Amino acid sequence: MLYICGTPIGNLEDITIRQLRILEEVDIIAAEDTRHSKKLLSHFDIKTPLISYHEYSRENKKNYIIEKLLKGKSIALITDSGMPLISDPGIEIVKECYNKNIPITTIPGPTAFVSAFVMSGFYSTSFTFYGFLTKNQKKNLSFLKKNNTTAIIYESPHKLLKTLILLKEELGENQKIAIAREITKLYEQILCFTLKEAVNYYENNKIIGEFVLVLEQNENENENEISTIPLDIQVSQYIEQGYSKKESIKKVAKDMNIPKSEVYKFTIVD
After folding, report:
1. Distances from the Cα of 173 to the Cα of 70, 92, 137, 168, 193, angstroms
2. How far apart are CA 164 and CA 170, in angstroms?
3. Which residues of 19-32 are buried (b: 16+ CB within 10 A; e: fewer)?
4. How far apart are CA 226 and CA 230, in angstroms?
């Protein structure tokens, strides 16, 4: 069995009883950085053998891990913090497990982007997690305008200010953003302001820690969203609000900027 095992993102008290049991019971723990993970395991007196599995050794170590799993060993896959595979290595192992019919399960744990999202206070029916933006994405941030959901981005301290300036140029200085750093750690901080205020703040304050950026969903999101709803459904929604069929057709035509006859033709509401 391969256990995809989440670990605390800062505060060690966030580890679960099940995580502790699995880390003790498995034959091997595959860690992104064994030096980092030794501190976690030592804190809880876990003596399970450790091997490294990171970006630069993944092909050789993947084969080794799969070989051990096929021989009946159980392995826990962990990263430096949070859930494996989220902006971290591990997907190749999971894919190969499916190819070899090796059973997989997950031991859930904290994730920084979900924690930042719920602390932001931004209401949203959905969000899009981008992880660390690539160089090409930063060259053209227009995709953020097209995506009508709350956007969540990871950023390192030495790139934070430059990224905020690029976001301000693309999305406007009044775009609201929540910026969280060092989540669950001693110096945890979350600030909510506009991109203009964010740039001003970080131009005048020391930038330390790993950051999660939460960009509030555009208030004008419905401009594109309503066009995907069938005309008869839109009419029905207005009727449910108490409008007559004639009034509802008129309202939909205005919303969609099309003739009333066009709405009537595609409307089957009695």
Report:
1. 55, 40, 19, 5, 10
2. 10
3. beebbeebebbbbb
4. 9
Name the residue type at position 75: I
Contacts 24+ apart (CB under 8 A), 42-45: 43/12, 44/12, 44/15, 44/20
Cβ distance 130 to 153 under 8 Å? yes
**Residue 82 has what pLDDT?**
93
> What is the distance between the alpha carbons of residues 199 and 172, in angstroms, rounded to a whole number?
12
pLDDT > 80? residue 266: no
pTM equals: 0.76
Instruction: State percent of the chain over pLDDT 90.
Output: 66
Work out the number of other CB atoms within 10 angstroms of the CB of residue 235: 25
Rounded to the nearest integer, the mean pLDDT of the chain is: 89
Alpha helices in the chain (DSSP H): 17-25, 34-43, 58-70, 91-99, 112-120, 135-139, 143-146, 160-171, 195-203, 222-225, 231-240, 245-256, 260-265
Provide the Cα torsion 137, 142, 148, 149; round to 10°: 30
Partner residues linked to 176 by β-bridges: 194
Asked if residue 246 has pLDDT above 90, the reply is no
Find, among 150, 262, 157, the residue nearest to 208 by Cα: 157
CA distance 40 to 156: 23
Model confidence pLDDT, tens digit, residues 149-204: 899 999 999 999 999 999 999 999 999 999 999 999 999 999 999 999 999 999 99
Residue 230: exposed, middle, or buried by beta-carbon count in 10 A (0-12, 13-18, 19+)?
Answer: exposed
| Structure tokens belonging to residue 67 | 């070989």
Burial class (CB in 10 A: 0-12, 13-18, 19+), 109: buried
